[in-house]
Amino acid sequence: MQNLKTSIRYLKGIGPAKSKIFSKLGIKTIEDFLTFYPRTYQDRSLLTPIHRLQVGEVQTFVGQVVDYKGKRFQRKGINTTRLILSDGLRNIALLFFNQPHLKEYLPVGQRLVVTGRIRRFGHELQVTNFDYEILSQKEPVDTQRIVPLYPLKEGLSPGTQRLLRRTMHSALDEYLSSIEDPLPFQLISQHRLLDLRNALRTIHFPESFLEMYAARSRLIFNEFFFLMLALGQVKRSRGKMRGIAFRSEGRLISRFIASLPFRLTNAQERVIKVIKTDMALSRPMNRLLHGEVGSGKTVVAICAALLAKEYGYQIALMAPTEILAEQHLLNLKRFLDPLSVRIDLLTSGVKGETRDEILARVARNEIDILIGTHALIQEGVKFGHLGLVIIDEQHRFGVLQRATLFEKAQQGGVYPDLLVMSATPIPRTLALTLYGDLDISFLDELPSGRGKIKTFCRSEKDLPRIYDFMKERIKEDYQAYIVCPLIEANEELGLKAAKEMFEILQSGVFQDLRLGLLHGRMNTAEKTKIMEAFRRREIDILVSTTVIEVGVDIPLATLMLIEHAERFGLSQLHQLRGRIGRGSARSYCILLTTLAISNLVNSEEDVEPLDDELSKAVKRLKTMVGTNDGFKIAEVDLELRGPGEFFGVKQHGMPELKLGHLIRDRRLLELAHQAASLILDEDSTFSNYPLLQKVVKDYLEMRQESSPRD
Residue 651: what pLDDT? Predict the structure, then answer.
């Protein structure tokens, strides 16, 4: 039986030189190559007589070599050979460069099948960018069939496609019989899937598009199925770990809730109850807190933290960036200082004696909640008594990053509880993929009495009216944000910056109002001072960068103007908009962009811009204007960016799916999840399925190796 881990260089006809081409495509082994799937296909099965070929079209035809005509370009040292083919009614020329032995290989009288783009040069028909094969009894590879086109990297010649096809054909002949199907037969039969060998041959060389779709379905099912098995196994193994049974009475939680100026929603009360039950168990909690912007995740997370604190344990709160970590510090101190909860911040910006002092205090159990990035646990911070890890997720941590983090957080074989907060709504099926290792709680209710948010898209020409509207709102005792993409002006980008805008507006149109400036380069004390002044209504308009994206809650802030809105991602725009509409009054979000984009966004006709980036910008802003529903926004964001970019594949530890698409192939994802759950329920160690056991083990090891090291 052949070894699929064999280096690609040992495949017949490859060797060291050609293996470098494969290496550029990320292909190192035979297995890599067989799973290097086509990007698309070209139907070359229809043969057209030469005299009926259409100029400008890509077509396939048969002709006999009748003549050669050569020409040498002295200056460039290029020999051009025109090979003339005929079908008896019309001639056509194929152009070859620097191929002196062509006449020996393709002598007059040889019959060829050719596929290429037809053009007219003077009175002569020519074919460019062509593939050809000698007409023979052998199975065709490059013509007379549906032909695979593989994804290539820049710098590789067009002839690489031909090399890949022919090499793939021989690799399948040589190695396909070595492949064993790890799926149980009853599963293949139940879902009417192709067997693995058939699917692999067909995905590369389909006889019809119907066959190709069947092969894709089987291979996509494979990707999802093994992902679900791996996640399920991680989840079940955690259920056997030793955790902390928090038996707190909940006095701190009661005092905290009583101090809030609002009532908890039913959803918050329900989830807090679930978390209390979860934390009382002797196994570690692994829970995702999933909710819309403004649904009150922070309050729920604080309740979990207070439960751990009351029982004598410490809490690590990790945010994806230092700026967001600082925002959490400001918020938590506001809520928890009255309860004498000791909170501190440890980021890469904290250095020297201050850092040493924080490390010493956390080791002595003198800090209750330590906030930072996920480097908190990975940089050798020694907690005296760590009981709860809270991750503000935002799609930056992955399944395997969580697993690694979890392992490093344990003390003496006892694992802390884990609570993950996800700010962006994710459709349920995608939550299965992203968070299949966690139990999920949904905060599916916003606090009552929230005012509606209306969103508009406008251009620079509308600014005078917008500024007048802002003045009117401020006269009514409301406040406003102006968000800029940069801190300081950048001439190359030509974008407005927060500092510049603050100075212009303060000395110009808003000279009679109180303006504040907030950005990421300010230290924590400066940010706290500005935010508290804004909260106390000592600032009318806050000019800011995206540091307000998370955790800022000002009920009287009812207006947001976002400069250069086309430069922001959809999820980020939604997060920013979530900073307004926190009170009972109606709020307004104004997306400022170019006149051209504004016209397209506000057009009732569905005009599709030619430029792809422009088209995406228009779709993002149209979506923002059209809905406040975070789930709909997440769907569009996924569609525009694709799962890899949306979830940040490399950072996230998400599987780099070769064929599967989490939105398009949602039905297969559901089926794979159901099938994996049945097998895990029956036998979570796969002792009855040795092939499955090996594949899942290899899968987890591979993901662990490819998971980034921070």
Answer: 42
Amino acid 388 reads: L
Angstrom distance (rounded) from CA 222 to CA 657: 10
Q: Outline where 48-158 has alpha helix (H).
A: 102-105
Give CA–CA dist 79/72, Å, rounded: 4
Provide the token pair at 243: 């955790």
d(CA 216, CA 200): 9
d(CA 63, CA 84): 9
For residues 540 and 561, membership in a common domain is answered with yes
Cα dihedral 637, 640, 645, 647, rounded to 10, equals 30
User: Tokens 């250095």 label which residue?
Assistant: 351
Shared-domain flag, residues 439 and 487: no
Quote the number of domains for the chain.
3
Residue 18 resides in a domain: no
Q: What letter represents residue 160's amino acid?
A: T
CA-CA distance, 144 to 77, in Å (whole number)? 35
Confidence (pLDDT) at 292:
77
CATH number at residue 127: 2.40.50.140
- pLDDT of 270 reads 96
> What is the predicted pLDDT for the residue at 100?
81
Residue ranges of the chain with per-residue pLDDT less than 50? 649-653, 707-710
- Whether residue 357 is contained in a domain is answered as yes
Shared-domain flag, residues 322 and 410: yes
Contact 552, 531 (CB under 8 A): yes
CATH of the domain at 611: 3.40.50.300
Q: Which of 627, 658, 676 is the last residue of a domain?
A: 627
In a domain, 573, yes or no: yes
| Cα 250 from chain centre | 38
Query: Which residues are registered as beta bridge partners of 91?
Result: 86
Q: H/E element holding 173?
A: helix 159-175
Res 404: pLDDT? 66
pLDDT of residue 162: 85
Q: What secondary structure does DSSP assign to 63-91, as a single string?
A: EEEEEEEEEEETTTTEEEEEEEEE-SS-E
Domain shared by 422 and 541, yes or no: no
Residue 197 and residue 205 in contact, taking contact as beta carbons nearer than 8 Å: no
The reply to whether 660 falls in a domain is no
Tell me the HSE value of 26 on the side-chain side, using a 13 A CA sphere: 11
User: For residue 587, what are the domain limits?
Assistant: 453-627
- pLDDT at position 710, please? 40
User: Is 437 in the same domain as 518?
Assistant: no
Does residue 436 contact residue 399 with C-beta atoms inside 8 Å? yes
CA dist 117 and 129 (Å) reads 6
- Cβ neighbours of residue 236 under 8 Å, at least 6 residues apart? 680, 684
Residue found under tokens 């697993």: 403
